[in-house]
Specification:
single chain, 277 residues, alpha/beta, 8-stranded parallel beta barrel, 9 helices, 8 strands, 44% helix, 15% strand, globular
Length: 277
């Protein structure tokens, strides 16, 4: 049965414990932990904060299956800048993989961000391939999957489509490097969500489920945007999707993350029930 996860970036102005408390109370199956301050920045975890994460996992019997470090803008983005900057980002993400392992996570998420306006594919593809190869080798060593996410064109000028993931997997053959679908990128590009499953096959390992509107990368409360989410759940039921799906509310609901996290999972559970999931 598909597992539903809570994404914690919208809770960053609340105590981390609220995430675990709410995930347990509201009926989430797991947490996808956002790796930024004040909650779970990898160098802070390494310095001792990992013990607090472990304590909360045990106290609330709520696993952290995914770790999503902040690395699309400042100060880390492995797709832009000098080679020294790329290497710095890679070292940071290797530490993130180590911390994912320490908290018992099954995967760490990475998304190739904007490579800069003057960069061409001839520059971007070798840079990405080198980076994911290096991170994938470390992922295999620590036993945590590296889950690669395509972004919207509002976030990246490079890695935005299912075809980009398919090309990455053609270039890199590593069982610890897998893909996912955030449903907003295909929706706003007039692409097919379900085509990710056809194109990626067994590499299609995770989802971010949320609602959206055309013309924006806003992540909207499930059931309150323009996406045909109810019908999508029927399609997921049809193919028997039984892996993880995080409800990624991000920052649009940061004023009341607890209220909206409850509404999100209740809305999605109702749609899943209607689809027979």
């Amino acid at each position: 049965m598909m597992k539903l996860g809570m994404f914690t970036s919208g809770y960053q102005r609340n105590p981390l414990e609220h995430c675990f408390q709410d995930a347990k109370e509201f009926g989430y199956d797991y947490i996808e932990l956002w790796g930024g301050r004040p909650h779970a920045y990898a160098p802070d975890l390494k310095a001792g904060d990992i013990n607090e994460v472990r304590r909360l996992i045990e106290k609330y019997e709520m696993p952290v299956l995914g770790y999503t470090p902040e690395h699309n803008a400042y100060p880390y983005n492995y797709m832009i800048g000098s080679e020294a900057q790329r290497e710095d980002a890679v070292e940071y993400l290797k530490l993130c993989l180590d911390m994912a392992k320490e908290m018992g996570a099954e995967y760490m998420l990475t998304s190739p961000a904007n490579g800069g306006y003057l960069a061409t594919y001839d520059e971007l593809w070798p840079r990405l391939e080198k980076t994911i190869r290096e991170l994938g080798e470390h992922a295999a060593k620590v036993g945590v999957k590296l889950t690669v996410e395509a972004l919207t064109p509002y976030e990246s000028n490079f890695f935005t489509r299912a075809n980009d993931l398919a090309e990455l997997f053609r270039r890199i053959d590593n069982p610890y490097v897998v893909g996912m679908c955030d449903v907003v990128p295909p929706f706003v590009q007039h692409e097919s969500i379900m085509a990710y499953f056809d194109k990626l096959g067994d590499k299609m390992d995770h989802m971010h489920i949320i609602d959206g509107e055309q013309g924006t990368d806003s992540h909207i409360m499930p059931g309150e945007g323009s996406m045909p989410l109810q019908e999508m759940f029927h399609e997921l039921a049809r193919i028997g999707y039984d892996r993880t799906a995080t409800l990624e509310l991000v920052l649009g609901y940061i004023n009341e993350p607890r209220m909206y996290a409850r509404r999100a999972v209740e809305n999605v559970r109702a749609m899943m029930a209607h689809a027979g999931m």
